[in-house]
Amino acid sequence: MKGKRDPARDFPGKRWLVNLLRAMHLVGVVGIGAGVLGEVPESRWFGFGLAALVSGLLILSLDAWSRPSYFREYVGLAMAGKLLLLGLLLAWPAQRFVLFWLILVLSVMFAHAPAGVRHAIWLKRS
Fold first, then answer.
1. pTM for the whole thing?
2. What's the distance, CA 70 to chain centroid?
3. What are the structural domain ranges in the chain?
4. What are φ and ψ of residue 80, in 5° steps?
5. Which residues make Cβ contacts (< 8 Å) with residue 24, sequence separation at least 6?
């Protein structure tokens, strides 16, 4: 069944850990937004970008570990894509403004898509 978590791949406190990582991720995103949109020197906000990237990678890793089908679903593909774009944002100063808005719009559209879309299988096993 798509989206089904393996109960063997769970641990006490995992939900709170993921919530803490999501909070860290949002703090990072707000810091990036303030830096990029406010044209603040990179040295004052780059740490927020790293916090968003690291917390996002940890969330992605936990989700993939918890649900082996994660990367075959659109949700896994979208998360990996957003983190790739975030890495580009940190590495490509000339395109930061555009990348910030692209990541933000894609995040909102995908987060609020119906579960049937987010968890649909894009990579079928043969």
1. 0.87
2. 13
3. 13-118
4. -60, -40
5. 51, 52, 55
